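User: C-alpha cells for this one?
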Amino acid sequence: MSNEVIEHMLLEKLTNFKERAYVFRIKERDIEEIERDAKAFAINFIGKSIKGELQPDLRRQNNSTILLFNKESRIRVYHNSGAIIAKNMLGPLEDPITDTSEKEVLTERVTEAAKKIIDEEKFNDHPDGLRFERLWQIKAAGVTRDGQKGPVILCRVVGAFRRYLHGFPVWGGASAYAMIAGDNIIDSAGLDYRPCIENPIDRAGIIDPQEAAELIIKKLSQDIGRSNLENYIPEMFSLGYLSLPKRRRQAFMQPVYAGVFRTIDKMNPSRFVALPALEVPYESIFRVSEGQPTR
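Assistant:
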C-alpha cells in the first residue's frame, strides 16, 4: 500500500476532533506528597490486613519509592509521574477463578475491585474521569503424562481503564488497572493519573488532521523502516492528551494526535504513534534520541 492509501485509511478512523482544545498545567508535587498518595492507595489495596496507623517501610531509590507493609504486598511509586503499581505475592496459579467465565460478570468484578482502591469519584460519565476500556483473561492449561491437554484454568482477569480529561482520552499506558484472582482477591493494581491544575492555561488551535496524519505516517516509517510500512493497517486515529512513560517528567497536558497501527498478519505487536497537535508544543513528548518528524 502507498503512503496515500494508508493516510486515507487513517483519516477515516479520526475521532474526538475539535478545532480547539485546552492545555492544562500538571500539578507539581514533591516526593513526600507522592509517597503519601501512594500510601493511601496501598492501604486500599491491601485492605483489612492493615490495622490502625501502621507505617510502611519506605525504601527510596533514584526514581521511585518502594512501600512495604508486609511480606505479601509490594507497592512502587514513581517520583517523576506519581504512577503507582501494587502487587500481591500470589503464585501465578494460586486462587484461580472457577465460578464464572462470563465477560460481563468479570468486567463488573474488575470494575468493583478498581473502585475499592481508587477514589470512586474518578469513575463517572462526566468529561473527566476513568472509563472501562478493555478486559484480558489470563489462562493456563496443563498436560497429562500421556501428552493430553488438561482443562483450561482461568488464572487472572485484568481490567484496564482510560482516563478522560475535558472529554478527551488521555493516551499512553493504561490510566488504571486491576487484576483479580478467585474469590475477588485483588492480585495487582495500578494508577497513572497525573493531577492537573483545574483552570486551563490555553485554548489552543489544533493542526489540520491531514497534516497530522502525514506526520504520524512519517514517524511510523522512521520507527519501523519505510519498506515495512505497507505491512501496517491503521486501527485508531484520535485527538486527545498523552501521559508520558511513568519514569519521565511532564509539565503539561497538551493536545496530541495518536494513532494505532496493526500488522496485516497480526503476528507482530501493534504500533502506537503520538505527536503534538499544536503548531508550537508546550513541551516535547519525544525522547531526546527520537526528535519530532518535521513538516
